[in-house]
Amino acid sequence: MSTATVLTRGPSLPADRGPLSAAVLAYLRGHPLVVAEDELTTADPFGDDLQLALYSCYELHYRGFAGVAADLEWDPDLLALRRVLELRFLQALRAAVPGGDDVAGAIAALVTEDPAARGVSHHLRRRGELWQLREYVALRSTYHLKEADPQAWVIPRLEGAAKAALVTVEHDEYGAGRPERMHARLWGDMMLELGLSDEYGSYLDHAPAPVLAEVNFMSLAGLHRDLRGALVGQFAVVELTSSPGSARLVAAAQRLGCGPATVEFYAEHVEADAVHEQVVRHQIIAPLVADDPAMAADVVFGMQAATFIDDLLGEHVMARWAAGESALTRPLDA
Fold this sequence. Notes:
- The chain is mainly alpha-helical.
- Helix content is 63%, strand content 0%.
């Protein structure tokens, strides 16, 4: 049991969603770590239980949880369990995507929009309701209130031109030195304007499994040096696909009569990510692969895995909304 300083600030521990997350959360509260072998082998790698257990382990490397000992971040028993969970998740992702090393082809697929696409941003622009936009902002806050932090893990794992260019993009994400312009702060301002809490971790208990998987993949790739190429690929998906979707969300916010903070967040990303797209393609990916051609397969995997998870999230949200139900694990009003 840890004797380190217990954090007094930070989000509260979430409610468990099954035996794996219950075991991790109990350990964070000071109880023994007990996990049955069959619970590890039968858990859905994309399901709520495994994803929440993994998210809770990763969060110790970010801001931690109130009431949890700080040195559990490097607890060997918890790290050993986390590695088993990571491998289950990683193996499932590799099995779910085609792989390959055609970076140019993967990029072309990302930047070519399907005119028949019917994703979340399309729905919100055309006919989405305000309650749906509020849900979307709440569920995406699990990442956006830590925006750019997972990608920062990869900086010391890169070198030369790729490192310099990635730091340039990160500098923009962090407001170019102006804390009020940090993208995480802009997201928080939008949440307040929409009547939501801007506290970090406020909606963790509301976040469905694909939301957790999205953030977990960033953390997994960022925290492992051998997955640095995959993290660059994930980062590319964000920067190469953001502008069109953000433009649709600007239109949605305006159609729904939202205030300036909501419009501003997405308008900022229309402009910034159009520039970032070129930086990522030509100044990060190109020199990274030129310097080490073996990185190509990892970059492609990162792109494909991030897209696969994003598709899972979009399908979940659209299916629940089509049924007239909340896309969250529990409605905001609850």
